[in-house]
From TrEMBL:
It comes from the Bacteria. It comes from Flagellimonas yonaguniensis. The chain crosses the membrane at residues 12-34, 46-65, 86-103, 115-136. The lineage of its organism: Bacteria, Pseudomonadati, Bacteroidota, Flavobacteriia, Flavobacteriales. Keywords: Membrane, Transmembrane, Transmembrane helix. This is DUF4293 family protein.
Length: 154
């Protein structure tokens, strides 16, 4: 895959991932605020059905990011790669929590255990949104710096 295609794939995967996480986060938060068990169950089912989107987009995001970084050792790139490790770890945890919350809401009811796990899921989801947003900001800065170098070298 050439550099332009890699950049496009990276941007598309980033947009899909952050939008999916944001939708999951907002839907869960709104359902909790509304507080109807049926609404919470429907949201958890929707999230469960939407998980494949993240399971596909996040690895694409990581792989294209690694490819774009190449062997460069710019501190911003190293920090982005470190953040990606945390994002991936949190993502794996979030997938497990989403499955657990769906099961709990659907088959065992919404109780104090559900609510505690829901708070954990929302916290980790918020952390991932911040980490991804930080990586987007760093990526834009790197792109700007790269454009400036290209312009100055002409």
């Amino acid at each position: 895959m050439n550099s332009n295609k890699t950049i496009k794939a990276h941007i598309i995967a980033t947009v899909i991932a952050i939008m999916t996480i944001a939708i999951f986060f907002a839907s869960s938060l709104i359902a909790e605020i509304i507080g109807h068990d049926h609404t919470i169950q429907r949201v958890k089912k929707g999230i469960l059905y939407g998980l494949p989107i993240l399971i596909v987009s996040m690895p694409i995001l990581g792989l294209t990011g690694k490819k774009l970084a190449g062997k460069r050792r710019d501190p911003k790139i190293l920090i982005k790669m470190l953040r990606m490790k945390f994002i991936a770890m949190n993502g794996a945890i979030l997938i497990l929590l989403a499955i657990f919350l769906y099961y709990r809401a659907t088959y065992e009811g919404i109780d104090h255990i559900f609510l505690i796990v829901q708070i954990i899921e929302l916290t980790i989801g918020a952390i991932n949104l911040v980490l991804i947003a930080s990586n987007i900001r760093s990526g834009l800065q790197l792109t700007k710096a790269r454009s400036n170098r290209t312009i100055n070298n002409d």
